[in-house]
Amino acid sequence: MDTTWTTRLRDSGLRVTRPRLAVLDVLGAHPHADADTIVTAARAAHPTLSPQSVYGVLQALVTAGLARRVEPAGAPALFELRVGDNHHHLVCRACGVVVDVDCAVGYTPCLTPSDASGFVVDEAEVVFWGFCADCRADTAESAPAQG
Amino acid sequence: MDTTWTTRLRDSGLRVTRPRLAVLDVLGAHPHADADTIVTAARAAHPTLSPQSVYGVLQALVTAGLARRVEPAGAPALFELRVGDNHHHLVCRACGVVVDVDCAVGYTPCLTPSDASGFVVDEAEVVFWGFCADCRADTAESAPAQG
DNA sequence: CCGTCTCTTTTGACCGGATCAAGAAAAGCG
DNA sequence: CGCTTTTCTTGATCCGGTCAAAAGAGACGG
């Protein structure tokens, strides 16, 4: 995979460095990792890696279009490598786990709001909130009824 | 309006206090205000109001279902009074202005992801990102092409 | 293969938004 | 009016993330 990442970094005009390869490798293994998780996991490959370096790497990757930043409300930012496809996220209110989902109707039904109010919309970000199978079982007796 | 708020607070089991009425009044005038804006504006009616008090009031309102908290990525949390209807938001990447939009198809087309992966979904949060009419005019020559 | 330049990483301080905890004040009720 | 409970105030604290300067490593030319 390092070969692939090397190519992709070069194609994006970015230098190939150990911190970047380490972060990319972690993102490949953890599809929705937050910065702290990335730091911890990436240190397996690069023990002296600092949190700030990871922030720098992530920002470079996002700017280059190699990674995408997702910020669920009330949670630290997550990073993922799947870019370019219009997929969305399913977030568990209890454990915070994030799962990718394709848009409900196949193409992009939500990309056109009923009234754009003069806006030029370039992205529709959809977050489905709920409870995953595991947490639903755990909290079956005290499920909050919302909305 | 105070009369209405008084009734709604009582109906929700909350005591009627000046800070709460002040915050509700501000939310009525600013449909998508952040905490800082609320503090500043509410001080017109209650000069000694502290930021922490506003946070407390907002949390109480959200818990009681009188207000809703919205957290666009990269921006401080916003609060709005429109609750219960399944409306979404249009956010300008340049100036940050937020506009309400009804869901594209009238009812809730996005509430059912194609594959829920065992999740029980209770809310679909949709954020449309783009540029508002004013900012589109301002940045017409350097519009970023994304996605 | 080495020197040089530029981009990255590292280190450290710093910032804003938000939360937590304890005492003072006010709302609600009899 | 006085009591009880909720709420507001005050202050400290936490966390994720950013900013700036200096050390280090990648990439290109010789």
UniProtKB/TrEMBL annotation, chains A, B:
Q: Which cofactor does it need?
A: Zn(2+)
List the subcellular locations. Answer: Cytoplasm
As to how many cofactors bind and how, the note says: Binds 1 zinc ion per subunit.
Q: Which CDD domains match?
A: Fur_like (cd07153)
Q: Which residues bind Zn(2+)?
A: C92, C95, C132, C135
Q: Which GO terms describe its molecular function?
A: DNA-binding transcription factor activity; transcription cis-regulatory region binding; zinc ion binding
Q: Does the keyword GTP-binding apply?
A: no
Q: Does the keyword DNA-binding apply?
A: yes
Its GO CC terms are:
cytoplasm
Q: Which GO terms describe its biological process?
A: negative regulation of DNA-templated transcription; regulation of secondary metabolite biosynthetic process
The record's section on InterPro entries has: FUR, Fur_C, WH-like_DNA-bd_sf, WH_DNA-bd_sf
Q: Which domain of life does the UniProt lineage start with?
A: Bacteria
Enumerate the UniProt keywords alphabetically.
Cytoplasm, DNA-binding, Iron, Metal-binding, Repressor, Transcription, Transcription regulation, Zinc
Q: Name one Pfam family in it.
A: FUR
Database matches in PANTHER family: TRANSCRIPTIONAL REGULATOR FURA, ZINC UPTAKE REGULATION PROTEIN
Name of the protein in its database record = Fur family transcriptional regulator, ferric uptake regulator
Give the organism the record lists: Trujillonella endophytica
Q: Lineage of the native species?
A: Bacteria, Bacillati, Actinomycetota, Actinomycetes, Geodermatophilales
